[in-house]
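forwarding from the other thread:

> can someone predict this with adenosine monophosphate?

sure thing
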Amino acid sequence: MERVIGIDLGTTNSCVAIVEGGVPLVLPGPSGQRGFPAVLGIDEQGQRLLGQIARRQAVLHAEHTATALKRLLGMRFGHPQVRQLSEMVAYRIVPGPSDELRVVLRNEPYSVVELVAAMLLDLKRAAEAYLGQPVSRAVLSAPLSYTDAQRIALRDAARLAGLEVLRIIADPIAAALAHGIGTSEKRAQRVAVYDLGGGTFDFALLEMSSGIHEIRASISDPFLGGQDFDRRLLDFLVFGFAKDHKIDLRQDRTALQRLRDAVEKAKCDLSVDEQVTIEVPFIISTGTSEPLHLTRTIDRTKFEELTEDLVDRTIQLAKGALAEAGVEPTSVDAVLLIGGMGRVPRVQKALTELFGRQPMGGVIPEEALAIGAALQGAALSQTPSASTTFELSPHHLGVLIGGGKVFRLISAGTQLPHESAHVFTTGRDQQTALRLVILEGDSDLASECRILGEFVFSGLLAAARDNTEVEVRFFAAQNGELTVTVVDLREQRREQHTFRLSAPLLSGDTDGGKSPIGSYELEAQRTDELSRNQVRTEQLISDILGMLPRAEQAVAGSELGLDAMRRARAAIERARIAIIRGESATLGDAKQLLERTAAMLRGVTASIR
Ligand code: AMP
């Protein structure tokens, strides 16, 4: 029977796995390593370059080489993350006809789906070459934070690559499956999944038992990852070099790229060695003297000192998610690490301190997602009809309650079929009818959810408020049907309605399931103010990032100045957490701190004009 492959489309590297005789196997990449570089370039002849060759081209022609495409997939041009991402990459990103993204390589605009499809096709071919047979079906793993639009784009890309996607599973679930969790346990296991990759951080708390995989809490920061650690090391080297030679290496593109590669390698080596020597010979030529070399020895303690706040930020985010779910870190049964940065000893130590237990070993972090996807694929290939079923509820499902809030009965990511019930009381005296609005979405605010349907349950006996009890029962089936049963507990009268869950993976609807509903002005006002503050904070971050290089140059060599720059970066990080958390008070404080930081930086840069 034809095999189903498991694919983890990575930001930096992708991975493909299959299951052979019940055992997962990761396919070798082109150069014998197991990863496939997730890079695509266009050469001077207009030919597509993939993987390692494309990565090599990036050294000299970064502007013609697309990286981090996974992060752009399914995004619209106006999205704030796109602005930030486009500042981080060397190629141009422009809007397409309907505001979808186009990546410009050698003056040609390409759709992101098309480029990702080319990468997936490369993975499909590698699997076919390895297996010696055609491959046409896959299970893909994707970040939990992916919106419907992103999942649809991923599915479209796979389809273009000639792959039928049996299912897209959330990364933390794939990781748990790879570790053998969630298949046979009688008692539900609490699993914390910590995923620190090249550019993003995700944390999820799962509750897994045989057949039920529930995501209890999750948080992600789309701009926190290995690159930030690399930048700290890079800055340290750049300042040292500037002090010795009065040359800012960041002004030379080739020197900068070589330095980036060198610091990333040093960071990886420091996961094993206590000390490394970074050497970049002939890094720059001044034209007046011999070319200069960069040599610097750095030990793990220094690296940890430079990046302490970054690790701490991930821990604070994880703690926040755990607190939100009301879960004590020490009650977690397993801690899983995915993402290359999980190898950093300081990260492992911080997690061990938080959870009182060591992260689980046994699976190579970079391979876990592809393995989980392959295991899921193997299971599905034994259930032919599974491709049309909903394994997990794609969104939270609930009913509208007072204050424009959603009372959640089934959480996103719950294994289906699933049943859940809650008893509500009437909110007004003499209330004889109840209007039930069934909502689906990723927010607890009704105004941000989609209405699946509504109905009025009437004929209640008039009584004082709180005296009438009505049970609302949700049953979400794998065929995507949600059956809502309302029972008047006093009269034992019942009514049943069926709704259809949105099929985020199948339809062409890409609005992320948001259909604002009226009459919740208060909530809307609060949300508006919050989002205005978020936008302002993002602007401040962007302004400060714009000023920092010049300010850092101005203070190069001064410990006091460098300390101020470190504090400026810490202020940015604090603000980013506040943006993600979406709490007005924290955001207000963070915004004020940024305003003070911006003023300080304006002063520093003005003084060197
Ligand atoms: P991912 O996005 O999961 O592929 O993770 C990529 C990130 O992990 C990059 O920042 C890599 O530099 C980093 N990484 C990979 N291997 C190691 C290692 N052995 N030690 C430290 N960081 C690593």
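The chain is about 40% helix and 25% strand. thats all i got for now
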